[in-house]
Every structure is written in structure tokens, then in C-alpha cells.
């Protein structure tokens, strides 16, 4: 009986251990990948931040590859959980912060802020990104709600795609009126992990960590909602409170990722499906799995972008090449079965 009692935990523990090993390997590969070859021993010694940096290779590791790797970890965790949370709350397998206009809302409000106030601090940029992501999420939720205020998956997807197209058009129109805004827009339109400031992570790291923990706390409630809102209410779940909390967390996580790397499409759509395929649909396992799988996929895409061309292909382009076929596959199989 004792073995039978612990057997359900054996498989998730083994899978989590394997995912951690894969993620750690990709972190090392990311620190070694670049135009200049730097040995593992020199890379490791350069990461000793308490030692002074006196070589070009040390500068490359500390101020280029290390921030880039951290950006992949932080943005990947934020985008993955935002996508997983959105798919769970809406019970829509095609839900994604980029597909439903949340990233476009963050980009639009940020660009509007640049056009009116010029340059501003990182926290002001983050505040605008959060406001835009929250407003976009609210508009899509209201537009996509069916009778009785319940979220309709098909209407939600159509509302998100429409809002994203409108906001992207307005953003492009504003940028064409000001060359300086257009230079900033190039960053927001093509997301990249090329972050050069470690201080950003001291600001965003705790925010993403707290939002991630809050998302994991909702796992039992999300399990109940996945069985239907009526049954969830019967089981004592406060569906409205969970949906409101989830909406705020989606906006916060999406804003963090967008403020850090710019919009990166499809990663929040594909990675949760990979986690669900590996760990099952129980949110107690699949949400922590998403935290490990999404940064791994994002770092892998970035490594591919840095390796297959003499210069660099931005990570958002690689994720689009991966995510577009995945989206077609999901549409054919999910919508064909009534989603």
C-alpha cells in the first residue's frame, strides 16, 4: 500500500527532473552560443560577478550572453504561464496572449506613450505595457462573452484577432508620423532576447516570480473550472474571483514579457500544449511543467536564430516559424472536434 500511495508522484518527479536537466543544458548552450567562441571554463569564470572583468570575452558573457539567457528564462516563464492561464480560463486551446491581442495592447499603449512624452524610464514603460495589456484583455473578454457573461471560445478568438489587427494598424500609423517612434517600434514589432542591462531583472524578476506563484496557487480552482463553471460553483469555487484574478495575472505576466523582450508570438500557445502532452491536464503538474518547458523552447529558438545565420535571426521569427504550423495543426484537430 505504501508503494501504491507514492506511485502517482513517481512519474511527475521523473519528468520534472528531466525537464530541469534539459533547461539547464540549454542555459549552458545559450551562454556558449555566439559569433565568438568562448570556452566553458572561461564562461564559468566570467559569471563570478564578485570578480572584476578585464577581458573582452568577460564583457561578452556578462553584458550580452548572461542578460540574454536571463531574458529567455524570465520572458519564457511569463509567456508560458500567461498562455496556459488564458487557455484554462477560457477553455480555448487556441488562446494565447499574442493571438488574443494582449501583446498588441501592451505595444500600442507603450508607443502612444512614446509619441506623447518621448523617452521615459523602464518602470514607466512597464506601467504603460501593463495598462495596455490589461485594457486589451478586458476588451477581448467583454467582446468575447456570450449569454450570461460566459466566455465563448470562438467569439473570444475572433475578438482577439480583430483587436490585435486594429491595434497593430494604429501602432504602425502612429509610428509613421514620427521617425523616432518608428525606431522604438522596430523593437516592439520584432521581439528579441538581446537585453543588455542586468538591472532590469532586479525589477522584473520578483514581479514575474510573485505572479507565477499566484498562478500556481490557482491550480486547484482551474481544475474545477475545467470541468465546467456550473460544476465548479457546486464544488465551492468562486469562478468570478478566479477569472478576475486570472485576467490580472495574464495582463501582468504579458506586460512583463513585452516590456522586457517585445512581443514574441506563438510561444505562449505552443509551450502549454507541450507541457500538457508531457504531464497531463492536471494543473498541479502541468502549470509547473509550463514554467520549465517554455523557457527551454524560447532559449532553443534563440540558439537556433544565432546559429543558422552569419548575423542573427530574431527569436520572434524563429518562434513564428515553429508556432504557425503548430497553430494550423491545433485548428484542424481541435476545431474539427468542436474544441
From TrEMBL:
Keyword list, A-Z: Cell membrane, Membrane, Transmembrane, Transmembrane helix, Transport
GO cellular component entries: plasma membrane
Gene Ontology biological process: siderophore-iron import into cell
TM regions (residue ranges): 69-86, 98-120, 126-144, 156-178, 198-218, 239-265, 285-305, 317-335
CDD domains: TM_ABC_iron-siderophores_like
InterPro entries in the record: ABC_BtuC-like, ABC_transptr_permease_BtuC
Membrane topology (UniProt): Multi-pass membrane protein
Localization of this protein: Cell membrane
Single GO MF annotation: transmembrane transporter activity
UniProt xrefs under SUPFAM superfamilies: ABC transporter involved in vitamin B12 uptake, BtuC
Family: Belongs to the binding-protein-dependent transport system permease family. FecCD subfamily.
Protein name (record): Iron complex transport system permease protein
Organism, as annotated: Rosenbergiella nectarea
